[in-house]
Amino acid sequence: MIEPNYFDHEDDRRDLIAGVRDMREAVSQPASRAVVCKAILPGPSLQTETERASAVRSLSTTGYHPVGTCVIDVDGDFEAVLDSRLFVSGVDRLRAVDGSSLPDQVSGNVNALIVMMTEKAADMRWGHPPLLPDHPGETA
Ligand SMILES: Cc1cc2nc3c(=O)[nH]c(=O)nc-3n(C[C@H](O)[C@H](O)[C@H](O)COP(=O)(O)OP(=O)(O)OC[C@H]3O[C@@H](n4cnc5c(N)ncnc54)[C@H](O)[C@@H]3O)c2cc1C
């Protein structure tokens, strides 16, 4: 079970509140008038920092893409949870292969990436040669 502590850090609150302010500023510009009719959510009455903070807290949702709780030591120069072949440090013959083993958050959705990583891990497990980057259907 992951407790993500949303808004626990002041930077997260500050950035999202600033994002609401900047978005309202952008859509109030003359260039936006042709496509923007009115503010619906958060509503037009929202003016103060406190009101923006309250709106951010009540309206924000997660993208459901938690990743990266098991850091991979790609270069072998620091002690991490996983090595570059996804083996768990200090545990014999155990790999972690799921969202937790992604090194970082990607800008898009994660599911396809996790499926690709598990395919790669299965290949490593069975000793299959790496696929060619430009011809993914073929092996070297
Ligand atoms: C509501 C929602 C919508 C999403 N929409 C998208 C989307 O549109 N596109 C996208 O790319 N991603 C989406 N995601 C994210 C994506 O689904 C997940 O990031 C991805 O499925 C994570 O894969 P995983 O293998 O890490 O974990 P999971 O898919 O959660 O797999 C974990 C598996 O481990 C099993 N398990 C847990 N504990 C044990 C145990 N003790 N013993 C044995 N088995 C166990 C679970 O039953 C489960 O089958 C969404 C997620 C959510 C929650």
Give a verbal description of the structure:
The protein is mainly alpha-helical and 140 residues long. The chain has two domains: 10-59, no CATH class; 63-131, no CATH class. The chain has three helices and four strands; from the N terminus they run ααββαββ. The protein has a two-stranded parallel ribbon. Strands 3-4 form a two-stranded antiparallel sheet. It binds flavin-adenine dinucleotide (FAD). Flavin-adenine dinucleotide binds at residues 64-65, 98-99, 109-112, 114.
Describe this protein with a few key phrases.
140 residues; 4 strands; single chain; two-stranded parallel sheet; elongated; mainly alpha; binds flavin-adenine dinucleotide; two-stranded antiparallel ribbon
Intertermini distance: 40 Å
Bound compounds: flavin-adenine dinucleotide
Tell me, rounded to a whole number, the average pLDDT: 87
Instruction: Show unreliable segments.
Output: none
Count, helices? 3
Please provide a brief summary of the model.
The chain has 140 residues and is mainly alpha-helical.
Chart the SSEs and their pairings:
Layout: H1 10-27, H2 49-59, E1 72-73, E2 82-83, H3 111-126, E3 131-132, E4 135-139
Parallel strand pairs: 1-2
Antiparallel strand pairs: 3-4
Bound molecules: flavin-adenine dinucleotide (FAD).
